[in-house]
Specification:
There is one protein chain. By secondary structure, the protein is mainly beta. The strands form 2 sheets. The chain has a 5-stranded mixed β-sheet, with no helix packed on it. The chain has a 3-stranded mixed β-sheet with strand order 1-6-7. It is globular and about 45 Å long.
Length: 101
């Protein structure tokens, strides 16, 4: 698996001295449909009961949740939306499931 940072992400990690990122899996709580996506946070994992794959890229240790199915190329991007800063992970399979009960 190859890890890539967009230029904005690379600048953000260098400017703010970011040394660790964690990618967790998050499942929505819909009535009949559930979607599992990624959630990127700064720092090491806080959920100790989960399994992670550890990869280092660009001087940053990245903890990847093993519950997500990653592609061969995973890209991290940084951006701002109104007053909120966002770090996003691209390059994984979004899991969808439906249940009638």
């Amino acid at each position: 698996m190859e890890i890539f940072f967009t230029p904005e992400m690379l600048a953000y990690t260098q400017k703010n001295n970011i040394t660790e990122l964690t990618v967790n899996d998050v499942t929505t709580k819909g009535s009949c449909c559930k979607i599992t996506v990624s959630n990127v946070t700064l720092g090491s994992p806080t959920k100790k009961n989960r399994a992670y794959t550890l990869i280092e890229a660009y001087g940053v240790r990245i903890h990847l949740s093993t519950k997500l199915n990653y592609e061969d190329k995973v890209t991290f991007s940084y951006g701002k939306l109104l007053f909120k800063e966002m770090i996003e992970c691209h390059g994984y399979e979004i899991n969808r499931s439906a249940s009638l009960f």
